[in-house]
Each structure stands twice: as C-alpha cells, then as structure tokens.
Amino acid sequence: MQHALFRWENAVIIALMLLLTVWLPAPFAWWPWFGWILLGSIGVGVLFFSSLTDVTANAKLLLEQYQQRFDINQLMDDGLRRDVHKALEYQRRIEEQIHNRKDSLIKDRLEATAGEITDWISNVYEIAMRVDRYRHDQLIIEERRTLPREIEKLTAQRDGTENAALKTQMSDVIDSKTTHLQSLEDLDVRMQQAGLRLDQSLTALATIYSQIQLIDSQSINNGRANRLQADIHEQVAQLGDLVDSINTVYNHSFDGIG
Asked: Model pTM?
C-alpha cells in the first residue's frame, strides 16, 4: 500500500496540480478554484487503486522486498545464491497465484498459507547463510587440514618418550585434539546434510507451487487445502529445527564452532 501511495507518478501529478493551481487557477471562466485539486486527487486515486489491483506489479514488488530482506549478495557460494534466488522466485509465483484467485474463500485460505511460506523462505535463507559461512570458514578449513597431522606427530612423540609424566600430558593433548577433530567431522556431516536439505526444500516448494494451482472449491471441501497447509507447516517446522540444531554447533556470525 505504501508503494501504491508513494509512486513517482503521484509525485508528478501533485506537483503539476500545485503549479497549475498557483499559475493557472482559472483556465476557463466556469473553472472552480479547486478544479486542479479535484483533478489531481482523482488522478492520484486512480493510480493508487490500479497499483493495489495490479497483480503482476505487486508480485514483482513483493519479490524486490524479499530480495532486500533475504539478500543473496550476502552469499559467497554461487550454488547457494542460485538456490535462494529460486526459492524467492517460487515465493513470487505463489503470491501471484494467490492474488489471481477470484474465489474469496479459497483466497483467504491460501493467504494464510502464504504467511507460512514466508517463514519457509526465511529458514531456507538462514540455512544457506550458515552453510555458506561454513564453506568459507578459513579457520575450520585449516584445522581440518592440520589436525590429523598434529595428532599423528604427537602420537609418535608420545610413543617415543620414556618419561611417564610427559607421556601422560601428551596423551591428554592427543585426546583433546582428537575430540576437536571429531567435532569438526560431525559438523561437516551436519553441513552436508543441511545442503541436501536445501535441495529437498526447493523440490518441495516446486510441489507446493503446483498444488496451489490445483486448489479449487472442491479442494476446500475434500481436505486437500488442509493437507497442503499441514505439509507447509511440517516443512517450516523441520527447517526451523535444522536452523536451531546448526546454531548449537556452529556460530556463523563469528566463524567457528560453539
């Protein structure tokens, strides 16, 4: 609605209305003093209404708003950037499908569904951000490369020493590094699973998009719409759980585990 009101065309109409009111207040003898104000108000109203009812323009605007909120330029990985862009495109098409609906009952049900799809997209973006940061986390990359060699070297040194106290201390260090390496390997598996989950989520979004196109009045009665909402709710919940589980083992804001 804000976009519909603050269009540049409205600014031009208002500016012309004010100029004409001041410089040409009565172009005709019968012209009322408020004539230009009336015409300008009508013009602004027509543009405002057309903006609200222009489905294609509204869908495009919605996509732009989501692209600002879910900034794909924050992602360094080309594949993840494409995935989020594709998710946003499905969101735009779903919103356009809903706005095109004439049946108010179906439209109301689908608009409730669209709200959860926004949560879905938000979770997709959050997962993509975490996977992206992990893939470019130089500290973790370096540790996964060097830790096995460090453990191997320390093990050889421990086995070669006769000093019991030194042997015990080295064993403690080896255990600590081994535990850390295992945590890194577990994290790597978790992030690989998250990447696969993103692919599955995009496929599910494509399926939802197709199903929304098939929703009709009969679907409301036979429960298809309820199943669709349940599927979306389940997807959102699963992705939300995945985001939470990643957050427990990897802090993407500070590039590291914990």
From this structure: 0.69
